[in-house]
Write the structure tokens for this entry.
Amino acid sequence: INPRVFGAIDIGASGGRVMAGIVDARRVELVAVHRFANGAVRRDGHLRWELGRLLTEVERGLAALARDFPQTESIGIDTWAVDYGLLDAAGRPLADPIAYRDERTATAVPRVDAAVDRARQYAINGLQHLPFTTLYQLDAERDGPLWDRAAHIVLLPDLIAHHLTGALSTEATNASTTGLVDVRTGDWSGELLAALGIDPGLLPAIEQPGTVRGRLRPELARRLGLDAAVTTVGSHDTASAVVGVPAADRDIAFVSSGTWSLVGVELDAPVLDEASRAANFTNERGVDDRIRYLRNVGGLWLLQECLRAWGVSGTPAALLAEAGALPTGGGVIDVDDAEFIAPGEMPERIAAALRRDGWPEPRTRAETVRVILDSLAGAYARTIEQASALSGRRVATVHVVGGGAQNEALCRLTAAATGREVVAGPTEATALGNVLVQARAHGAAPATLEEMRAGLAAGQQLRRYAPA
Ligand code: ADP
Ligand code: LRH
């Protein structure tokens, strides 16, 4: 049988890629046809995403896909969560989207929490408190100059899908990160929208992964040389990453390791009790209505920002190896502290936090990196214990997927801190999850997530780290 080809557009906070997913009866192979850098820029008083540049990079990637894989039948889109753009009544973007690390929500958080207390928010949306959740961002947006002209609030992957097809919907897994969806029904919460004074008509209807959103607009199809469907996938990158975890068994925890580390377990039903809220665990909606029960752990953002401050590009293997060879005990920071959310001066902020807590200050870059690695591994271990205790899910193995799966020192420290075997890879789990959900919708992949994951477990190159 001829293999079939599905294209994945996967854009994270630190970088994007367009990949061809070549699917045959036994396996999925990914070929990267285009990669590009991403990052928020400060413009017009806010940290923003450059929408025009992202769309140009997406089009470049699709042109490369058309060149190398003209038989591509469908494309899926995923990006980081919570952020959105505003469209006017004619469907034109009103501005570059403001990024979640922008400080505009500082005043919105107390205002929203006064309108609906946090316990009630949790009972409805089941989300951990993060200061940048869309509901806080929208409350800040209402004070801004664009609100009166806004006809549609559109999450980033849906904004790209709208550019490609002209169709407008909100994808279900990403909708669940807005804080405006009822975790039990999966639909917009009338109660929260009313409390925040947001007109429900601003929010496009929710669509499930595996639905055909539309086809590439004729003008684009001609220009790019590609006539393909756009199929809705788990458009929250973490939802697609969890689909791409190569584990046939369910007694596992995952660490989706990129700019953030999303650490948790997959469940069939949300955990909404007070202990779960107090531990700040989130119930995000997964593909096939699974629940991604997890916490956002500060992640490799800390490392990215140190490298940026040091003027180092890429992820230098030598520095990671040097850090990995240092002894433990040099100090740890709380990677989840809100003080690390904003960009800038990360080495200094880490040193200040260590000083404040009575740790020695790092003398070298490797020592700073080691503090980050030890702090992340410790946070993963605590989070996995809590996820297991709060949900009742036994955890035998820890799967690390995403760019951070290549960080050998971090994987080794994670195995030691969790006392469990770590299985690292695939690096591109998100693109794999994106491709598999499309392939299933078009009859080219198995019906259940377990069967898909068993295929990945057999077909992907994985590294194992023993707990000792
Ligand atoms: P996101 O989707 O959030 O942009 P990715 O999943 O692409 O993130 O992961 C990016 C991270 O992966 C980088 O910040 C870096 O720390 C890590 N990484 C990428 N390449 C390597 C490598 N060769 N060795 C170690 N870590 C790497
Ligand atoms: C990871 C991620 C995470 C969200 C954050 C905004 O890329 O989507 O799941 O919390 O970005």
Remarks:
- The mean pLDDT is 97.
- The pocket of adenosine-5'-diphosphate (ligand 1) is lined by residues 12-15, 237, 258-259, 300, 303-304, 315, 320, 402-404, 406-407 (CB under 6 Å).
